Amino acid sequence: MTSIMLNEFISDEELLKARESFNSIKSPTETQRFEFALNLIRSKQRPVIEEGLDIFQRLFANTRDENMKRDTLYYMAIGQTKLNNYEQALKFLQSILNVQPANEQVRDLYIEVNRRMKKDGLIGLGIVGSAAAVGLVGIIGLGAALLAKK
Asked: Which Pfam families does this entry report, sorted A to Z (predicted)?
């Protein structure tokens, strides 16, 4: 389920319908705001995901329902993971695990976020390493050219 949600995206048409439906509601309930935010974080577009995260943050701050708090933290972690904000995602998940250490869905997502963070970190190191190698080859080439001129 976790990897499915991380790889699940909403089409632009579905997103437009969800937005129109949500905007037609004069005073949306917590559940309606939650469902709309859930649609937003399913987008591929960073600003739309951020909009969903903002709604989730406001829901979290204003609700008294502990289940709603847990669920908003969980989906904020998914949104942050989609934005590659792994440390923030892990903080949200750890907050849930502090209260519910046996929550397998949260533990699975925590493991997946760590896996992605390590994978992206290794890719980042590979890019930096490649750039350093190219720079070193350039310096060696420049040195060889200068020596050849003498």
From this structure: Fis1_TPR_C
